[in-house]
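Protein in question kept in full:
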Amino acid sequence: MAKVIDPATVEARTGTIYPKELAKMVEGRSKRALTDLMGLTQFGVNVTTLAPGAASSHRHWHVAEDEFCYILEGDITLISNEGEQVLKPGMAVSFPANEENGHQLVNKSDKPVTYLEIGTRAQVDQCTYPDVDMHATKVGGKFAMRRKTGRPFE
């Protein structure tokens, strides 16, 4: 049976799994997770809004998960290994699994930006953060954050 929801009625999640010392960058980010509510398990979809100055994440890349973003409203800056590029409403960007291209979206404008964030839901994954001392390991669908040496965060 088809399920229909209004994303505006979904509670926004503003927290992060980042350790406290690395969490400031994503303050001002809110995500409305849609797929769990709709009973989907193979991929995830978030309606994500970034306040001015907020970032989607630290620059990162996944070993096992594809990512795709479609800009709905506002101008957002993509930062990747290639440099910076402004994405406007109607534009899309993809990040294939295991492509070592650290990426993030940053709202450098003075208005909120909203985009769809779609990705694989791999049960096992590794995520590399080239600009900060953090690495993520995903087992059983749950990420654990550690320093690049493997040492846990305090």
